[in-house]
## 1
Amino acid sequence: MAKFSTERILAGIVENDRIVIQFVYDKYFASIKSYVLKHGGNDNDAWDVFQDSLMIVYEQAQSGNLTLKSTFITYFYSICKYRWLKQLRDRAPNQHEEFEYKNEVELFGYNKYTAEIDEAIEQEERVRLYQENFLKLSKECQELFKLLAKGLTTKEITKELNYKSTGFTYKKRRLCKEQLLRRIKENNDKLKL
Amino acid sequence: MKPDLKNIIDNDLREQEMEQEFLKAINNDHKLALRETLMNIHNKEIKQTKQVSQIEFKEEEFLAAIKDEHKLALRETLMVVHTKGSQKKRLHIEVFTSRRVQAIAASIVVFLMVGTSFLFNINGTSTNAELFDQYYTTESSLLTVRSGNTADFSPLSEGMKYFEQQNYNKALNAFKLAPDNMVVKLYSGFSYMELQKYDEAVKEFTGIIEQNDNLFIDQAEWNLALCYLMTDKTDKAKNILTHITNSNTIFNIRAQQLLEDMGNN
């Protein structure tokens, strides 16, 4: 397996470099998973933790504010741990308040940062749920939503996608939204377990 | 008395008793108010738990999320990598259920092991100090300390500031004021490593490991192994590294690699 420096990994994540991402996954996902499983989570939780944490790295790296003095894995692992401990705390606030979570906060040293990272984590959870389920939709629905996201009107979308009428576009939009909501709901049911 | 009539009277009496009991129960204002408070707290908690597990769909938020094309592309790559990874794992399990294949696999493993050690001999082994340099990386408090946050003057945050500035002696002086804190112990250990006082670092890491119930054991064990390596206590280092490879920690792979690199040292 090729080795990459911390800088190369961060750049690879920002650039969506498949080889770097494959490397990060192959090298670290198993460890993150075993940590989550060891601490009361399941396979899906581990995958969510991994994704959210990598996206947090992406956000920090692409903003240019990240000054990393530790190795990538020390930094990444601490985000993963923090992300998982936050989920444990959110699930049962009274049980985990004084638990490891507190130590992890101390590791960051400053409470202000804690609030920021908590916000970032919550944001990432929502974005994951949206993006992940969006990517599982039919190509047609993906196309339709992309145009909506770009701010196109129903009339413009009708023209762009060669639909026969605006009424048909409305109908398609409703069906796609139903498809999306059904998937999100399935995800939520998984979360409840 | 007819049985039916007896039943009716009994029921009436029971209802009367219940009514009296009910009126008595709601007549206690204090207890009623206490109950109301308790129920409010409980309901609030249930609502909060629900909020955590359920996401409310907001179309605007959804459209904003899919508009971020870079992130969406990154997510897609991740999903592809993960799906392939899971498929590979399934395939691996299926293949290894066959005994015959297992035997072949075993011979491949032997072949690979022989191959690796052969290569190793050609390349020659590194000294413990060289290996230490290769595997040791300076730790930091993970993120840059922000100068605006000066309200917190705990030994930990004071020490961390100095640690960030690579002023390890000052960091240690601050850390000494909170000797029982596990984070302090961890970063005291790192500070001693930076100052090349490995025996002192060993004490800090050992302290963390002895205090069994904390989050930093993985890091303490790994760095303890590195300290032993640097002070040529090779057997001790190998023992810890072997222990790490048998446990599911983040240092598992690194420990395996280091053990391989140490070879016959």
Note: The first helix of chain A runs from residue 6 to 14.
## 2
Amino acid sequence: MEKPRIKVPSSARKGEVIEVKTLIKHPMESGQRKDAAGNLIPRKIINRFVVAANGKEILNAELFPATSADPYLIFKVRVDADTRFEATWHEDGGASVSESAEVKVG
Amino acid sequence: MSETKEWASRRDVLQGTAFALVAAAAGLLAGPAAAGVDEARKALALLTGGAVPKEGRITLTLPQVADNGATVPLRVAVDSPMTPQDHVKAIVIVADGNPAPEVAVFRLAPEIGVAEVTSRVRLAKTQTVTAVAVMNDGSAYAAKAEVMVTVGGCST
């Protein structure tokens, strides 16, 4: 799986709502497309995207073939203290990749 | 499904399994044809536990016209304090004109503090996208958006 990206502000005020932007390169093969010979290309997508903040799971997204290729997922979160976000992308078949980012909150 | 103890209630597991079964059935039957309003409604009903959604509190934003159905921006936000006593448990999104109706399920914990997610979705053709927010007390709120799609998004 490709190395994903996660972007957060480097610092924030206590109680501020910030945006966490995530991006991963992935074809999100829907299982609907056919190859040149007319055979269905099998489905292979990222089916789950999970984010923990300081070890506590805050977002657990179940994704379907309706998510576009190169999933670009943004979510808002309110931060009250220094926070380390860890995001994990799970692919059909069990492979996964994680990436993390930190926000200093004062 | 999340492995976290406080989320994986038996009800959640049953609904998740049922949701997957509906998705599988829709996939087997549909092919490139649209799943339709009925399949989308069934998929929603399974996950919301039959709660009849009310209007309000949830906003679903998509462009009125999408010139590329392969990547259509979607934003969903729910007016909720996200406290342990009053929070969004899940946001379910379905599309009634896609080969399979399920678009995404965003499960949230109150610690997130605010309920707003943005993504990019594939829309096969002009259709209605529906988002339902299921709250911790079992109530549900729905919003719809009609999107006109000029170039369908399922071939890429």
Note: The radius of gyration of chain A is 16 Å.
